[in-house]
Give the backbone structure.
Amino acid sequence: MAEKVPQNFANHTRWDPRFHFFVLPVFAISVIIAIVHLVKHPGLHSAWIVVFMIAAATAVNRFRTYSQRVQDRVIRLEERLRMAILLDKPLRARIGDLSESQLVALRFASDGELPALVEKALAQKLSNKDIKKAITQWRPDYWRV
């Protein structure tokens, strides 16, 4: 089995080749073909194919979005549990002040730098992108959907 490339801010985005480079293009091209067919051969059947293809493309996109939302919920729970163990009591009381996107971004922070980064995220209201940029010891997440 090939070694995984160490994750960092520059390469942490997850690309699923089967989804991003096959499924999405196939649906996008199918919508375009259906629209071209409707223009060349107007009628109820052609219009219905366009509506159906747009609905199918929307469904595929929503399925992906739903799985990411569920995973974000799991990440939030996991990070709250990790923080409850790693943070001192005063900072632990402020876990609820972190936004969903901050919690999701903090999953990449190593245990050693997590307390300082949580404090900084709360004090400066850091965005998820700023949190990820501030991480020096990256904790990889290879399981992201």
Summary: The two ends are 20 Å apart (CA to CA).
